[in-house]
Amino acid sequence: MSPEDGSCCESNGTPTCDNETCAQCVCELDNFCCESSWDSVCAQKAKEDCVASCPECDTCGDTGGWYTRYENVIVTPYFSRNTAYSELVDDDIDGGVGNREFNWDLEYSPRLELGYLDCDGMGWRARYWHFEHSSGIRRQIDGQDVTARPIDDPNIGINISDGTLDAVHGINLQVLDLEAMKQSKDCEGSLTGSFGLRYVRMDQQFTARDIGSTSGDLNQFVNLRHNFEGIGPTVSVEALRRFNCSNWGAYVNLRASILYGEADLVGHSDNDASDPAVDNFFATRNEQDLIPVGEMQMGLDYTRGDWFVRVGLESQYWINGGSASAQTSNGAGEDSPTETDLGFLGLNIATGLSW
Q1: pLDDT for position 260
Q2: φ, ψ for residue 41 (rounded to 5)?
Q3: Taking a C-beta distance cutoff of 8 angstroms, is the pair 124, 118 a contact?
Q4: Closest CA to 126 of 202, 182, 230, 196
C-alpha cells in the first residue's frame, strides 16, 4: 500500500487504496475493489460498512443524505362482503337466495417515498400510495328474480326479472404517511424504525343499472357512495439481512396504523328512470369510524452503491375498511358498508436511489 494507491474514501482508479486495514475490510466484502478498481461502490463500503477500519472516511457529510423510492404495488383487493347482486336459487342457501360477488384482478398502483437520513441514522420520510380501480359484472336476465341492493334499506335497490344488469364497484384510495425514523446498519444489514401520522381518503362507489332487453334504455338504477376520511398514528419496523455481507439480502417490513375519521354513506335509487318523479329514493348516513390497519412486505433486495431494487410480497388488512356493496343475500344487512373488512394481496417491485 502507498499514497499512490489513492484515497479509500473516493473512487481512485487503481486497485486497493492507501489504508491497508480499510482495504482489507472492504475487499473482504467485494474483492473487485482490490482485484480490478477502487470505484465509488468501494468508497461507499468504506464509509458505511467498514467505517471502524476506515476512520478517515467517517464524515457526516459523506454518509448522510437524501433518498427516493418508487414502488410498483400490484395487488388484488379483497372484501369480506362485496355483493354485486343476489338471485333466487334452488338450493336452500340464505333462505333460497344466493350472492354473486365482484371478481377483482391484480391491479397496478404507484407508491412514492422521499426521505432524508443524517450520518447518525436519524431522519424523516414521506410516503404516498394511490390505488384507483374498479370491477364490473354484466348479467343477461330472462325470467330470473335478481336484486341489487347495496345497503340494508328496502328503498335503496332494484329488482330485475327481464333485461340486462350492469353492476360496477370502484375504489379510489389515497394514503399519505409523514414519519420520523431511525436506522442502524452495517455490512450484515440494517434495522429501521419509524413513527408518524397517516392521512387516508377512500372513496368507493357501487352502481347497478337495469337496461331494457329490447329497447336498450335505462329502466332503473341504484347508486351508493361510501367515503371515508381519517388520520391517525402509524409505526413501522423494517429488517434487512445481507447474505454473507454481499449485495443480496432479504427484507421484511411490518406496519400498523389506527385511523380515526368520518364515514359518509349516500344512497340513491330510481325505480323508473324514464320519469324522475316516480320512485326516487335517497338515503344518507354519517358515522364516526375507527379503522385499524396492518401491513407486511417481505422479499429480496439487491443493492449496488447508491442504487437498489426489491421484489417481494405486499399484504394489507383494513379492519372495518368498508365496502360500497355489503348487502347480504337475504337482504338482512349482516355487514353494513362501514363494518366490512378490506384487504390487499399481491406483489411489490421497488427501486430507489440515494445521494
Answers
A1: 95
A2: -65, -40
A3: no
A4: 196
Look at residue 212 in the predicted model and tell me its pLDDT. 74
Predicted local confidence at residue 333, as pLDDT: 44
Question: 209 has which bridge partners?
Answer: 166, 221
Long-range Cβ contact pairs of 7-10 (< 8 A, separation 24 or more): 7/43, 7/56, 8/38, 8/42, 8/43, 8/46, 8/54, 8/56, 8/57, 9/43, 9/46, 9/47, 9/54, 9/56, 9/57, 9/59, 9/62, 10/40, 10/43
Tell me the whole-structure pTM to 2 decimals: 0.78
Domain boundaries, the chain: 3-57, 64-354
Q: What is the 3-state secondary structure (H, E, C) of the chain?
A: CCHHHCCCCCCCCCCCCCCHHHHHHHHHHCCHHHHCCCCHHHHHHHHHCCCCCCHHHCCHHHHCEEEEEEEEEEEEEEECCCEEEEEECCCCCCCCEEEEECCCCCEEEEEEEEEEECCCCEEEEEEEEEEEEEEEEEEEEEEEEEEECCCCCCCCCEEEEEEEEEEEEEEEEEEEEEEEEEEEEECCEEEEEEEEEEEEEEEEEEEEEEECCCCCCEEEEEEEEEEEEEEEEEEEEEEEEECCCCCEEEEEEEEEEEEEEEEEEEEEEECCCCCCCCCEEEEEEEEEEEEEEEEEEEEEEEEECCEEEEEEEEEEEECCCCCCCCCCCCCCCCCCCCCCCEEEEEEEEEEEEEC
pLDDT score recorded for residue 47:
83
Pick the closest to residue 84 from 102, 68, 66 (CA basis).
102
Question: Per-block average pLDDT, block size 10, for the chain (355 residues)?
Answer: 74 88 91 90 86 77 77 95 75 57 94 92 96 91 77 75 86 97 88 97 91 73 89 97 91 97 85 62 75 97 92 96 70 61 96 91
Say what the pLDDT of residue 173 is: 97
CATH 2.40.128.100 fits 64-354, yes or no: yes
Radius of gyration (Cα) for the chain, nearest Å?
28
